[in-house]
Amino acid sequence: MTREPPAAVEVLERAATGRGVLDNMGQGSAWIYWTGYLADILPRFRERIGRSGDPAIIPKLFILISLLGRHDARASYSDSRPDSWAKYGIYPVIVTRSGTEDRPLGRHSVYRLGNDDSKHFLVEFAASVRTMGIMRGLSDAELAVQTRAFYYALKEIWSHASTDSEQATIAAESLVIIFGSSEADVFDQLKAVIASEPSRVK
C-alpha cells in the first residue's frame, strides 16, 4: 500500500520543531522549495509583473514538475534551454534594451505560444526535482517516487498557505503547478492552460 504524504500542517510542525525525520527527501525538498523560494517571490509577483511594462503577461507563475525529472532545472533564457522548446511551440519573448537582449523580470524569462503576443507567461521547472536526482544519485524509479512525493507535498503546503492570510491567498493565486509523466506531457498541459486564459491585450 502506498503511503499518503503528510498534511502540510504536519510537514510544517516537523520542520519548525525538529521532531522526527521527514518521511522522504521529496517532502523535505517541497518544504524547502516553498519557504526558501516561492513564499518569498509570490507575494510581490503581481507587482513585479506590473512594473515589467508588458500588459500581455498572465499574472501567474507556472511551475512544471516532470516525473522523469532529469532535465535542466530552470526555464530561463540565460540557460539557452528555451531554444529546444520550439518543438513544443514555446518561444522566449526577447526584450532589447540599449542593444542588449534582456529578461524583463529578473531571473524569469517571458514566453509565448507560437507567434501569439496576446498572452505572455512565466514558467520554470521545479529545480528541486533535478537537484534530488543529481545530489542523491537516485535511479529513475527512485526519483519518480520522490518526485511524486515532492508534488503532493508542495500541493498540500500551497493549499494550506492560501488560508493563512489575505496576502498569502493572493500569493497562492499567483501560482499554477503542473505535474506530468514527461517533459512533453507537462508542456502539453501548459499549452492547454495557457490557451484557456483570456487574452491580456486586444
What is the strand and helix layout of this fold?
Elements lengths: L7 H10 L7 H17 L3 H8 L4 E10 L23 E4 L1 E3 L2 E3 L7 E4 L6 E6 L1 H10 L3 H22 L4 H8 L1 E6 L2 H14 L6
Parallel strand pairs: 1-6, 1-7
Antiparallel strand pairs: 2-5, 3-4, 5-6
Helix pairs in contact: 1-5, 2-4, 2-5
User: How much helicity do the residues have?
Assistant: 40-55%
Largest sheet: 5 strands, mixed
Sequence of strands across the biggest β-sheet: 2-5-6-1-7
Radius of gyration: 17 Å
Broad shape: globular
Total strands: the figure is 7
Secondary-structure element string = HHHEEEEEEHHHEH
Pick out the low-confidence regions.
1-6, 14-22, 72-80
Helix/strand-derived category reads alpha/beta
Instruction: Note the gap between the termini.
Output: 52 Å
Mean of the pLDDT scores? 76
Beta strand %? 15-25%
**Treating each run of at least 4 consecutive H or I residues as one helix, how many helices?**
7
Describe this structure in words.
By secondary structure, this protein is α/β, with parallel strands linked by helices. It contains 7 helices and 7 strands; from the N terminus they run αααββββββαααβα. The protein has a 5-stranded mixed β-sheet with strand order 2-5-6-1-7. Strands 3-4 form a two-stranded antiparallel ribbon. A hairpin with a 2-residue loop joins strand 3 and strand 4. Helix 1 crosses helix 5 and helix 2 crosses helix 5.
